[in-house]
Amino acid sequence: MSAEIVNLRQFRKKQARSEKEKQAEQNRVTFGRTKAEKQLTHSLNDKADKAHRDGRIEKDDDGA
After folding, report:
1. Helix, strand or coil for residue 60?
2. What is the pLDDT of residues 4-56, one digit of tens each?
């Protein structure tokens, strides 16, 4: 008839750690990209920007 004694402070800390770990796992899925993936995206964006700038036609201001 004796119940297990539970320290509520420890229980709350354990529960908070569990919630933080769940949030961290979700963040890893949502925001996690490797450094190589970030560099690849950056270089692809730079290449596309350069191609866009190279294709521009510059007009003279003197109406010609």
Report:
1. coil
2. 888 999 999 999 999 999 999 999 988 888 899 989 999 999 999 999 999 88
Return the CA Rg of the chain. Answer: 28
End-to-end Cα, the chain, rounded Å: 99
- What's the rounded Cα separation, in Å, for the pair 39 and 41? 5
Which pTM value belongs to this model?
Answer: 0.48
Rounded distance between C-alpha atoms, residue 41 and residue 49, angstroms: 12
How far apart (Å, rounded) are the C-alpha atoms in residues 23 and 29? Answer: 10
